[in-house]
Amino acid sequence: MGVGRFVYTPILPLMHAQAGLSAGAGANLATANYVGYLVGALAGTVVPRLVRSSVVLRGSLLALVASLAGMALTQSTVVWLFLRLGAGAFSAMIFVIAASSLLSHLREHPAHLPGWAFGGVGAGIALSGLLVLVLRTAGTWRSAWWASAALAVLLTLVAWGLRPEPEPEPAVRQGPAASARRAGGPQTRRWFNALFASYTLEGIGYIIAGTFLVAAINQTLPGSIGSGAWVLVGLAAIPSSALWAALGRRWSRPDLLLAALVVQAAGIALPALAGGVAAALISAVLFGATFIGVSTLALGAGAHLRFPRAVALLTAGYSVGQIVGPMVATPLLHHGYHQALLLAAAVVLAAALAAFLLRLGFPHTMSETITERAGGDRRPTPGAGAAGSSSSREAGASAEA
Fold first, then answer.
1. 312 and 41 Cβ atoms separated by less than 8 Å
2. CA torsion sign, 68 to 158 to 39 to 296?
3. Class assignment of domain 2-166+182-393?
4. Angle, CA of 132, 122 and 240, to the nearest 5°
5. Cα–chain center distance at 19
6. What is the 3-state secondary structure (H, E, C) of the chain?
7. Angle made by CA atoms 166, 55, 238, in degrees to the nearest 5
8. How far is residue 390's CA from residue 10's CA, in Å, rounded to a whole number?
9. Neighbours of 38 (CB within 10 A)
10. CB 29 within 8 A of CB 8
11. In Å, what is the CA distance from 236 to each residue of 132, 239, 341, 358?
């Protein structure tokens, strides 16, 4: 998924220089990918059985590989548009299936396992960035797409045996109390709404930074610094989820989500507020170390609330944010990229505010009933609700029983 979604970013300059792709058409291809991501996320929401199907997973993996290889077979912008649209949809389906599988199968396992799995997105970014960095001098835009498809084939072979989330037990077996909790009462909806708002705003701010961070760095520094910064984003993302999960032994998901969003906002704003190589590289590390961590924390919190189809709904909101982000940032690009980064940082700070609201009365252990939690913010005592509960121990990674 990391290769399929993000290899387009480092290949784009080659397509501009060698394939005659205009800046406007390049932006349209990126938007098509975001729209496709929304389509895939909505499909998982409307038809939950898709998320539990090995056939859908394997078909999406193969289709994603085909979409990468297909980019090298044509120079038609229209065909490219449909290929990137498909790549977005298949990537979203793969992510929703994989995330749901992690949240269900690894709930009793150490938090670092699902954390490292989510870090695979960062590995895909780093590998595809390094691949294109090598091919910039020895190959063409076509060879870059062929190489990325070959890399995706190898990763597909490893991912082939992933078991999707199992079918839920019938509500009759769970009892009326469990059924009511899964349906989500008013308090659960309030917490989920705050989480949904935070994650959607993160989608807006993150994609603005992800789209324009390298360009903003290249605006004042040599191009190699921008390319290197993108690889650094991927490298920083690999261990990020596992590290955030480790922090969950002492702090709860809402606290960590708030902290990650504040750190990310600072990293996004840094290149716009301070020039130089150091600021660019620090920005890349802070961005890479948080954007996947935010996803795992938010998805884990949604699953913890036992809100129906939480992963698919949150992913859908996130993908809507990805479509909106470039649209609201485009008017600012006439003055360079720094204003766009400042806008992105402001939006991520708004996401942090929503995460702060999520903290109020959040049920750190779901054994507490909704009516018990509605009375006030009963935070866990040290060692009981933070380090001791499975809820915090698996922060950002799994759903608790």
1. yes
2. negative
3. mainly alpha
4. 150
5. 30
6. CHHHHHCHHHHHHHHHHHCCCCHHHHHHHHHHHHHHHHHHHHHHHHCHHHHHCHHHHHHHHHHHHHHHHHHHHCCCHHHHHHHHHHHHHHHHHHHHHHHHHHHHHCCCCCCHHHHHHHCHHHHHHHHHHHHHHHHHHHCCHHHHHHHHHHHHHHHHHHHCCCCCCCCCCCHHHHHHHHHHHHHCCHHHHHHHHHHHHHHHHHHHHHHHHHHHHHHHHHCCCCHHHHHHHHHHHHHHHCCHHHHHHHHCCCCCHHHHHHHHHHHHHHHHHHHHHCCCHHHHHHHHHHHHHHHHHHHHHHHHHHHHCCCCCHHHHHHHHHHHHHHHHHHHHHHHHHHCCHHHHHHHHHHHHHHHHHHHHHHCCCCCCCCCCHHHHHCCCCCCCCCCCCCCCHHHHCCCCCCCC
7. 75
8. 40
9. 22
10. yes
11. 18, 7, 20, 27
Per-residue pLDDT of the chain (401 residues; tens, 9 = 90+): 999 988 888 888 788 888 988 877 887 888 899 899 889 888 887 888 888 889 999 999 999 999 999 999 999 999 999 999 999 999 989 988 998 888 788 877 776 777 788 889 999 999 988 888 888 777 889 999 999 999 999 999 999 999 888 876 665 444 444 444 444 555 678 888 999 999 999 999 998 888 788 777 877 777 677 778 888 999 999 999 889 888 877 888 899 999 999 999 999 999 888 878 888 899 999 999 999 889 888 988 888 887 777 877 888 899 899 888 888 887 887 777 888 899 999 999 999 999 999 888 787 665 543 333 334 443 433 333 333 333 333 333 333 22
Q: Structure tokens of 284?
A: 């890349």
> Residue 346 carries which side chain, given as an amino acid letter?
A
Cα–Cα dist 232/327, whole Å? 26
Q: Look up residue 102 and give its two tokens.
A: 């992690």
Tokens at 394, concatenated: 């698996």
* HSE of 241, CA atoms in CB hemisphere, 13 A: 31
User: Structure tokens of 61?
Assistant: 């993996």
Which residue type, as a one-letter code, is found at position 145? Answer: W
